[in-house]
Amino acid sequence: MANEDRETEKWKAKFTPLLHAYLSRKNPRTRPTIEQLDKLESFLTSETEHIQHTHYLGDLKQKLPLIKKIYESLPQPNHHKNLDTARFWSGLWALEVHSLKDIEARFEAIRSEKRKVRKLQEYLKALDDAAAKYPKLLRMWKDQEKDSSGAQLGEGTPGDTASTATRKRPASTSEPSATPQKIPKKTAKETPQKTPQKTPKNTRNKAKSAEALKRDNERCIVTNMETPQVCHIIPFGLLNGEEALWPLLDAMQAWFGKEAVIKAQRILCEEDDDNIIDEPANMVCLNPHLHKWWADGRFMLKPRGPPYKEPVGDDGVATDLKTANQSNPRHSMSTRRAEKQPAERFRWCQEMTFHWLRKTGFHMTDRADFNCNPRDAFQPIDHKTPGATRLEPWELVVDGQLIKVYADREADLPSYDLLQLQANLLTAFSLTAAADPKLYESDDEDMDAFSY
């Protein structure tokens, strides 16, 4: 705390005279304009919360030595081709510290086992299979994300969620043809017709989208702007890809852990009430520009731990909001129950941090240097890329901005598990060929089964 106080005093001593001199300028060509003063006032009066000293790659001081140690645990020469590449390297950087420690501990445990050679080869094969499947999982996700974003841009309807999972949709046999067709007569030798496949679920549930829109008070959760679009965390198009998605997730057990993968399969691939792809738990509200950049992989919303309960005051607003977020009306969402009865004692909250993503020049198939700190390999920032402006005049969305979404039920919050899965995918995407999702095309497996 003493160091932070000294740092604050240092900046005050530096900027106080600069600010005074700036405001005292008399030259018409250099004195501040009304526009500049408005911008300055916005910065000086902003109460937007930020988490200091955060980075979407996590704790680099802990992760870098762990990743080095994992790579040093691989036998040399390494006969598993994917474990020397940026596929494996980027996947490791996408993991949390505890997952890296689990992988390191697994190598340590194998060394003490009696049949360590066989056990080691089995584990290496599992890690290699995950590295091989990771680009396919990324490709599936990015293809569907881009498809689902395009149809919503330019449509100003609040909460617009027009269906976009109709690409390559098979023609309906019930639709009349413009040209009369001859109906062939049946013969005894006619080949039996195959059972028609299940029609893809192409229609989004507007009622669920409306619930997400109401939860976020019909505002973008990042900029607080009105007339947002309801966006899916995990692309809606994957609702039709359970059979292709399941084995890709299954291969990730060696990285993400068995429990996390089984849960992801349950909420993304099951055809029952457990599936939440088209539920508010898989939705957030963003303005049209952020929606497009979300699909392009320009930024991430990284969860800050699982959801938690927060006390609610007598007025029905979480007590934390009365200070930090009182200028943000999206958090004061009321429900029918709240209108009829006194506010409940607690409200559920999911915290996220906003991060602009940086890309490197690495490709998935490049041989990786596991001693490399990714931040040293980031390409220069493209200053032509527009920032996202908040509702407050001239205030830009910056790294580390804290975002809180509230709901009366935990199940109605943006899913922590889906946010974490997307954060893992986006991290790897930013570290390897983030400029072009086509670079993720499968090199040894046909993905046509996922086309619709």
From TrEMBL:
Ranges for region Disordered: 145-212, 310-339
Keyword Secreted: no
Protein name: HNH nuclease domain-containing protein
Pfam families cross-referenced by the UniProt entry: HNH_2
Domain of life, per lineage: Eukaryota
Keyword check for Coiled coil: yes
Coiled-coil residue spans: 100-130
UniProt feature, compositional bias: Polar residues: 160-180, 322-332
Annotated HNH nuclease domain residues: 220-301
Keywords annotated in UniProt: Coiled coil
